[in-house]
Amino acid sequence: MSMSKVSRFVVWICRKFSREEIERIIAELTSILKNPNAEVKPRDSFKEDHPNYRNFQADPIEPLTEPPDAKKKLKKATR
Question: Whole-model pTM?
């Protein structure tokens, strides 16, 4: 059975940091999650689900100021 990303991350944190450091990490993460105006924001699931939302380029060609020339209608050839 494979471990989830979060479980692997928790194991990594426990191996790299002391108990006091982990408690400070938890306090900082809690304050970030509680503060909606925090400098560091948690990832947004909407952005993950819709990666190309508002990711577009405006057309550099300006819109037409006059209507295009009328095209002649082609008659179908009768057989």
Answer: 0.48
